[in-house]
Specification:
The protein has one domain. About 5% of the residues have low confidence. It is globular and about 65 Å long. Helix 3 packs parallel to helix 5. The chain contains eleven helices and no strands. It is mainly alpha-helical and about 230 residues long.
Length: about 230
C-alpha cells in the first residue's frame, strides 16, 4: 500500500465515522417515516429513502464545498464544526415529531426532506474532512449512509456500550475544524510566519483538545444544575 492509498483510506474512514456519528437522528427519522408502511413495503421505503438521502446529501455537500473556497468561510466552517462537536457531547435526545406515511413515496418524501434539513452538520463536517476530494465524498457517503440506515441499532448499541466513542468522535470533529482553519487561504500570510508543523498539526490538536475541555466543563455544569434541582 503506497502513501497516497493509505492517506486516502484514512480520510475515507474519517468521513464515514463522522457521518455515522452525526446521523443517529436521521436513522430515527427513517424508522418513524416508514412505520406506517406494510412489512413488504417498509423495506422498499427504507431503500428508496436512503437512496434519495444519499443523492441530496451529495448535492448539498457540493454546494458547501464550493462555498468553502470563498475567503474566510473556512474559518466560519471551522468554528461551526467546533460548536457541532461540543453539542454532540452535551445534547439531550429529543423526540422528533416525524409524520408517518402509509405509502412508499410519501415515506420517501418525508425521509428526504427531514434528512436534508437535519444534515447541515454532517455536510459541513464531510466537506471539511474531504478537502474537495470528490471520490472521498461520494464513496464515503455511499458507504456510510446505508450503514446508518441498516445498522442504526448496532451503532446506537456501540455508542451506549462504549461512550468514549462519542468523545473520540467529537475530538475528531475538533481536529477537522483545526485542519479547516489551518487551510484558510486568507490567513496564509499570517501562518507563513509560523512553523509549518505548528500550523498543520498544532491547530488540529488545539481544536480537538478545546472540544473535549469545553465538553467536560459544560457537562459538569449541567450535572451540577440537575443535582441542585
Amino acid at each position: 500500500m503506497d502513501v497516497d492509498t493509505g492517506t486516502f483510506l484514512v480520510q475515507l474512514l474519517k468521513i464515514m465515522w463522522i457521518n455515522i456519528l452525526l446521523s443517529g437522528d436521521n436513522a430515527v427519522v427513517i424508522a418513524l417515516a416508514c412505520r406506517g408502511l406494510t412489512p413488504a413495503n417498509r423495506k422498499w421505503g427504507i431503500i428508496l429513502g436512503a437512496g434519495v438521502a444519499i443523492l441530496l446529501r451529495i448535492i448539498f455537500t457540493a454546494v458547501v464545498t464550493e462555498l468553502m473556497q470563498l475567503p474566510f468561510l473556512k474559518i466560519i466552517g471551522g468554528l461551526l464544526l467546533l460548536w457541532i462537536a461540543v453539542q454532540l457531547l452535551i445534547e439531550n435526545a429529543d423526540e422528533k415529531d416525524i409524520k408517518e406515511s402509509n405509502n412508499i413515496w410519501g415515506a420517501v418524501r418525508v425521509i428526504a426532506v427531514a434528512d436534508l434539513v437535519m444534515s447541515l452538520d454532517n455536510v459541513v463536517a464531510i466537506a471539511a474532512a474531504a478537502h474537495g476530494n470528490w471520490a472521498l465524498i461520494i464513496i464515503g457517503l455511499g458507504i456510510s449512509v446505508p450503514l446508518i440506515v441498516f445498522g442504526a441499532q448496532l451503532v446506537i448499541l456501540m455508542l451506549e456500550k462504549w461512550p468514549w466513542l462519542v468523545w473520540a468522535g467529537a475530538a475528531l470533529l475538533g481536529w477537522v475544524a483545526g485542519e479547516l482553519i489551518a487551510d484558510e487561504h486568507a490567513l496564509a500570510e499570517t501562518f507563513a510566519n509560523l512553523p509549518s508543523v505548528l500550523v498543520h498539526y498544532g491547530l488540529p490538536i488545539l481544536g480537538a483538545a478545546l472540544v473535549v475541555l469545553v465538553g467536560i466543563i459544560l457537562k459538569n455544569r449541567h450535572q451540577a444544575r440537575e443535582v441542585a434541582q
